[in-house]
Specification:
- The structure holds two protein chains of two kinds.
- Chain A is α+β, with helices and mostly antiparallel strands.
- Chain A has a single domain, classed as Roll (SH3 type barrels).
- Helix content of chain A is 16%, strand content 41%.
- Chain A has a five-stranded antiparallel beta sheet.
- Among the domains of chain B are: 7-174, P-loop containing nucleotide triphosphate hydrolases (Rossmann fold, 3-Layer(aba) Sandwich); 185-275; 549-583.
- In chain B, 63% of the residues lie in helices and 5% in strands.
- Chain B has 32 helices and seven strands.
- Chain B has helices at 19-27, 72-82, 103-114, 127-132, 139-146, 161-174, 185-200, 208-216, 221-225, 230-246, 251-275, 282-290, 295-313, 316-336, 341-359, 362-378, 380-393, 402-407, 412-418, 425-434, 444-459, 461-489, 511-545, 550-563, 569-582, 585-597, 604-612, 619-630, 641-647, 663-675, 680-689, 692-719; strands spanning 7-13, 44-49, 55-60, 93-99, 120-125, 150-152, 500-502.
- A six-stranded mixed beta sheet of chain B has the order 2-3-1-4-5-6, sandwiched between helices.
- In chain B, strand 4 (93-99), helix 3 and strand 5 (120-125) form a beta-alpha-beta unit.
- Chain B is elongated.
- Chain B starts with 6 loop residues before the first strand and ends with a helix.
- Chains A and B meet through helix 1, strand 2 and strand 4 of A and helix 3, helix 11, helix 12, helix 17 and strand 7 of B.
Chain lengths: 74, 722
């Protein structure tokens, strides 16, 4: 399922991501790669952006970019 | 700064690793450190005295997550490390400052940097935090695996700096290199192609690491530096990337995948303990409240309100103290200089009156800067950007614009410089152009004077605080639509960079650092008062004092003795002063220009103040101070500017005899100052960061906007019954 559609906090694993998008490419240089586990931690007041946690760091990203990441629930 | 022939060492690291703190400790120099991702935008250098007696030139590079050279910061880092910056030679050694809690991501940067062929030492910073969290990292084992010295440090308490100095001294001798990945054939083949075509055939000067940047990064700033014609260059790069793709690697993802695949086996067992850490950090628990969709927003708005309210209430007693001091000084100096009226007027009305009126606001500036420093040091600023991002996104900006814009509330110049962290050129341009609309601290004196004189006595302190709050937000409200318009009209930038931002761990702010930042901004303010403000004050005083024909005093005295029943000496003196003021150079000029500002309700004195403050807006205070002092309204009974303003009356025209200042006029002046770009320094910085065309354009645009808004405010204000 797409990361932007998930409404519940929890642990997910990245399946696929569109590395052609500069935002995703940037996240990949920070260690968010396929097979990486992540947690959805926060949503901004209007639901966008969201905050995810992986490898001990918290990153904020917008829904339009989160839509390019496929995850599975763990 | 740079000692001749000294070795140079560059400090690199992710944002929020304490890299700048380490730099300050090692060099003894101080600089601005914040907790927001990427606050270090300029390259700073200092001399580091090694214990063995050696001296090295230490360069503090901007905090970056990688060397992909998409933003200005990253480009600066690559250029310096590869030896292409203005200092020419590449550094002799790189110290990579690594945050123990994010070892993997931090070492990715180290690994990228190692490709540039410079020896390296790793400083494992925030060691104390890691220890407290039960995170134990075997630095000796890490050192063995990586092939370079690894030194645990705690920048805050100076722990480990001695060991770091020793490691650096040794490393400058034996030049240790970080282990580098063995790249698959597809990568090495593509790199060989690039080397042959660019370096061998076209004579470009490129290191291995730079060739990698050209291959792996779609929009690499390294490409912009090449001499090869753009079209030819792009074909070469495209071919190399296609070759990589045919070899089975998606070019945009190749480096991350391969480099982490190389790093992970080196780190996995070392990091095992990290995985066992509790799932939810303290920062995250705090964020449950501060990033909550309802409570988080309420806290944010409440916090902003408290900030502006405190600026108003906390500083009061200190301001009275300064005001009394200035009055006392003026009187005592005035008594000494009674024999030379010109000198007395210059010193008392001009210098002491003008500069004093400005200095009074020091306490409030300090309170505001205290809060900005506090929010930055704790790490809340990034949360504010997170909460605000959606509000910005419709106008083409992102939450990253928030911090530069919030800094612009202190001063637009650091705000504009802070936009260098915005990687999208278009978003950066728009942010720079709207930054002057944020109400900087130089406007504060204007608001405080007028609110204190007209709003507070009528409506009380809480409405006064609210008005101050509103004045700070009027620019924000207008900035949105302006940004949207610019977003629609400006062409889209090639390498538009979306919004990815780290939410750093919260930190307990260091009193010492906040105190230091307050000291810096406070002394800057005082120096400004002593130099520019003082000089401008003298010029304006002269323009308001001269010409001074003696026969004018005689004629006023003559007419006063006829008109007034029993002319008191003071009343006559006031009339004479007023007459001189009116026919002074500035007075005549103000009268000529006044019709332009008449629809906004300004008399000629306010017009003079507005015109005089185009170079720097805080001059309005000293100008009004001089105008009313010279005009005789400020006498012993009413020694401050506030009461002088409340007593001012129209001298002629349809409104003669009615007070010049009422609430609509006060609001209109505040709105004008809130929106107008009355700051020469900001115009110069915009020209430097963008282009002169933009600087002039924004000056004209904002002045026009300010005038329209001021006129509307006055007209609507007069229409509403009091």
């Amino acid at each position: 399922m797409r990361l932007d559609l998930i409404k519940k906090d929890g642990v997910y694993r990245v399946q696929k991501m569109d590395s052609g998008n500069p935002c995703i490419a940037r996240l990949m240089t920070m260690g968010l790669l396929p097979e990486q586990e992540l947690r959805l931690t926060h949503e901004a007041p209007l639901g966008d952006p969201i905050a995810i946690e992986f490898n001990g760091c918290q990153m904020s990203l917008r829904l339009e970019d989160a839509a390019l990441i496929e995850v599975e629930a763990l | 700064m740079k000692a001749e022939g000294a070795l140079s060492v560059a400090l690199i690291g992710n944002p929020n690793t304490g890299k700048t703190s380490l730099f300050n400790i090692l060099t003894g120099l101080h600089q601005h450190v914040g907790n927001y991702a990427g606050v270090t935008v300029e390259k700073k250098t200092g001399t580091w005295n090694l214990p063995g007696g050696g001296k090295v030139n230490l360069i503090d590079l901007p905090g970056t997550y990688n060397l992909n050279a998409a933003s200005l910061d990253e480009r600066v880092a690559v250029d310096v490390l590869a030896g292409h910056s203005s200092d020419a030679a590449p550094p002799d050694l790189i110290i990579v400052v690594v945050d123990v809690e994010n070892l993997r991501r931090n070492l990715y940067l180290a690994s990228q940097a190692s490709e540039l062929g410079v020896p390296m030492v790793i400083a494992l910073n925030c060691w104390d935090v890691a220890e407290r969290k039960g995170l134990q990292i075997d630095s000796k084992l890490l050192e063995q695996r990586l092939g370079v010295p690894v030194v645990p440090t705690v920048a805050r308490t100076r722990r480990g700096t001695g060991a770091l100095a020793e490691a650096v001294t040794r490393a400058l001798e034996n030049r240790p290199m970080l282990v580098r990945p063995r790249w698959p054939e597809a990568v090495t083949d593509s790199l060989t192609d690039l080397r042959r075509e660019l370096v061998e055939e076209r004579g470009e000067v490129l290191r291995e690491g730079e060739l990698q940047r050209l291959l792996f990064d779609r929009y690499s700033a390294v490409a912009e530096r090449l001499q090869t014609p753009t079209k030819e260059r792009d074909t070469i790069l495209r071919n190399a990337r296609e070759k990589l793709h045919r070899g089975g690697y998606q070019p945009d993802a190749a480096e991350s995948l391969l480099r982490y695949r190389f790093l992970n086996p080196l780190l996995n067992d070392i990091l095992e303990r990290q995985a066992a850490m509790k799932k939810r950090s303290t920062s995250e628990s705090i964020d449950q409240l501060l990033l909550h969709r309802v409570w988080g927003l309420l806290v944010f708005v409440g916090m902003m309100y408290v900030v502006f309210q405190s600026v108003y209430t906390w500083a009061g007693p200190f301001m009275d103290l300064i005001a009394n001091g200035v009055t006392w000084l003026g009187e005592s100096v005035g008594n000494v200089l009674t024999t030379t009226p010109i000198l007395q007027s210059l010193v008392v009305d001009g210098v002491i009156g003008g500069v004093g009126a400005f200095l009074i606001f020091l306490p409030q500036i300090l309170v505001l800067f205290f809060f900005i420093a506090l929010l930055e040091e704790t790490g809340y600023m990034a949360r504010a950007a997170f909460l605000m991002d959606k509000l910005f996104s419709w106008s083409g900006l992102n939450g990253k614009s928030f911090v530069p814009l919030l800094s612009s509330f202190a001063c637009a110049i650091p705000g504009i410089l802070a936009t260098r962290t915005i990687s999208d050129p278009k978003a950066r341009c728009i942010t720079i152009l709207i930054a002057p609309l944020m109400s900087c601290s130089a406007r504060l004196p204007v608001y405080l004077l007028l609110i204190g004189a007209f709003i507070e006595p009528v409506y009380g302190a809480s409405i006064a605080g609210l008005t101050l709050f509103a004045m700070h937000f009027i620019g924000v409200f207008l900035a949105g639509p302006i940004a949207w318009l610019l977003h629609r009209t400006l062409p889209r930038s090639v390498s538009s960079q979306p919004f990815v931002m780290e939410l750093p761990h919260y930190r307990v702010p260091q009193i010492k650092r906040i105190a230091h930042r307050l000291y810096e901004s406070g002394s800057e303010f005082i120096v400004r008062a002593g130099t520019i403000i003082c000089a401008m004050t003298i010029v304006i005083w002269a323009l308001l004092y001269f010409p001074r024909p003696p026969e004018l005093a005689e004629s006023v005295r003559a007419s006063a003795s006829i008109e007034l029943q029993e002319p008191s000496a003071a009343a006559v003196e006031n009339r004479i002063n007023a007459a001189y003021l009116k026919q002074s150079y500035m007075g005549r000029f103000g009268h000529t220009v006044q019709p332009i500002f008449d629809p906004a309700g300004y008399d000629w004195k306010i017009t003079v103040g507005v015109l005089a403050s185009f170079p720097a807006r805080e001059i309005i205070i000293s100008t009004l101070g001089i105008t009313y002092a010279l005009g005789g309204e400020v006498d012993e009974g009413s020694d401050d500017l506030r009461s002088a303003l409340t007593k001012a009356e129209w001298e002629s025209g349809p409104r003669a005899g009615t007070p010049v200042f009422n609430i609509p006029v006060a609001l209109s002046i505040m709105v004008f100052f809130a929106l107008c770009m009355q700051c020469g320094a900001t115009i110069a910085v915009i020209a430097k960061e963008l282009h002169w065309g933009w600087a002039i354009g924004s000056f004209i645009g904002l002045t026009a906007l300010a005038w329209v808004a001021a006129v509307l405010t006055y007209q609507i204000g007069m229409w509403i019954p009091a």
